[in-house]
Amino acid sequence: MREIAPDVYVLQVLPAHLLNVYVIGDVLVDAGTPWHARTIIDSLRGRAVSAHVLTHCHPDHQGSSAAVCRHFGIPLWTGAADAPAVEQGAALAASLPRLPLGRLWDRVLSGPGHPVQRVLRNCDDVAAGFVVLETPGHTPGHVSFWRESDRVLIAGDVLLGINPRTGRAGLHEHLDFACTDPRRNRASAERVAELEPEVICFGHGPPLGGAAPRLRTLMKKSGRRT
Ligand SMILES: [Zn+2]
Question: How far is the CA of 56 from the centre of ligand 1 (A)?
């Protein structure tokens, strides 16, 4: 586990930074695919963990949620609009209605459903000084976590830290076809940009320091396109 900012850790999940699992304070943020349960449980050994929170319901984030919650006996928290999909373990069919064979993909890729004990709304406290920022669009109930004191953002997939086509590190918008509502996701990204984050911790890609000016440039480019 590596500390990125005070009380913000990224777990060593392979392949490195292709997808990320974080700990903020004593709360686990996201849980990789169904094949990451053992790595996550081993990484958290000896640490006090009091809850598990999801940025959104997709199977590369909720894959091991049920296993981890059961193992540590901790509650699961999600954005309100993603809670039904998380409880059913059926995120792809629910959040990407245009995806062919969504239910089949869910059966192959999604982790099992798990009860959600707390639904999150804007400004709710999470842990270590982070509050909830509702950032819908990638999924209907997508949330990010924001700490004003040192301007650290746990972004989830509202933005990407890798090029989704090449896999190389860099700040990018998400692909339209992977979002429930691409326009709404863009509006969420703009809202995040207005906060001028210093550090962005993405769902995919290495953390980005000195993020605000780069994000401003990306948003300007995207504004010209729309
Ligand atoms: Zn993702």
Answer: 8
**Cα 149 to averaged position of ligand 1 atoms, centre (Å):** 26
* C-beta of residue 82 within 8 angstroms of C-beta of residue 59: no
For residues 207 and 10, give the distance between their C-alpha atoms in angstroms, rounded to a whole number: 9
SS3 181: coil
Kindly give the distance from the C-alpha atom of residue 157 to the centroid of ligand 1, in angstroms, as a whole number: 6
Q: What is the pLDDT along the chain (226 residues), one digit of tens a residue?
A: 899 999 999 998 877 788 999 999 999 999 999 999 999 999 999 999 999 999 999 999 999 999 999 999 999 999 999 999 999 988 777 777 777 766 777 777 888 999 999 999 999 999 999 999 999 999 999 999 999 999 999 999 999 999 988 889 999 999 888 899 999 999 999 999 999 999 999 999 999 999 999 999 999 887 765 5
Dist. CA 203 → ligand 1 center (Å):
6
Residue 220: CATH number of its domain: 3.60.15.10
Q: Could you give the CA distance from residue 142 to residue 170 in angstroms, rounded to a whole number? A: 21
Structural domain boundaries enclosing 167: 2-225
148: three-class secondary structure by DSSP: coil
